[in-house]
Specification:
about 170 residues, Four Helix Bundle (Hemerythrin (Met), subunit A), 3 strands
């Protein structure tokens, strides 16, 4: 993260909390006006459809929240491997209602941000990942932010391909 961003918000933690809070609202705005065929369509060259991206975000959030809770509870705790990226291949997110996927993600994100706001000195604590070794809470949250940005770009790219340009004008990421 560039130093000017941290300077603008006082520190990296404040910036990351702000970014995490805003993502669920942004995702909701990007998907709510898409009809069911658009939510399920996977254009050529795309790995996932919109529903699969949102399902991935929800499952990633669930995994990350468990890791955050564990790290805050005990420094040096073993944390699980992230597997949410396998979700679109293992689960049928297209059968789920987009409202449910977005709601679940938003509620998990709310719980995550509250946990982080009250983490205090635990931001310097770490969990031990099975393959990566020590991962600090700050590093985990930075990775969540990067994942969120990637997911928003994926959804925006899908919107751009599925909807007319005039319709997308107000939703540029």
């Amino acid at each position: 993260m560039p130093n000017y961003i941290a300077a603008q918000y006082g520190d990296k933690r404040r910036y990351l909390l702000k970014a995490l809070r805003e993502v669920s609202h942004r995702i909701e705005r990007l998907v709510t006006d898409l009809d069911e065929p658009a939510l399920r369509e996977r254009p050529a060259g795309e790995d996932w459809c919109v529903k699969e991206v949102v399902g991935f975000l929800r499952d990633s959030e669930r995994e990350d929240l468990r890791s955050i809770q564990a790290i805050v509870a005990r420094d040096g705790v073993r944390i699980e491997e992230r597997r949410a990226y396998l979700g679109p291949g293992e689960q049928d997110y297209t059968a789920a209602r987009i409202e449910d996927l977005v709601w679940d993600f938003a509620m998990l994100r709310e719980e995550t941000t509250w946990m982080l706001r009250t983490a205090g000195g635990s931001w310097d604590s770490a969990g031990v990942h099975p393959y990566r070794g020590e991962v600090t809470l700050l590093q985990l949250v930075q990775e969540m932010n990067e994942r969120d940005l990637d997911a928003m770009w994926r959804i925006q790219r899908l919107r751009d391909r599925l909807l007319p340009a005039a319709y997308n004008r107000d939703f540029d990421v």
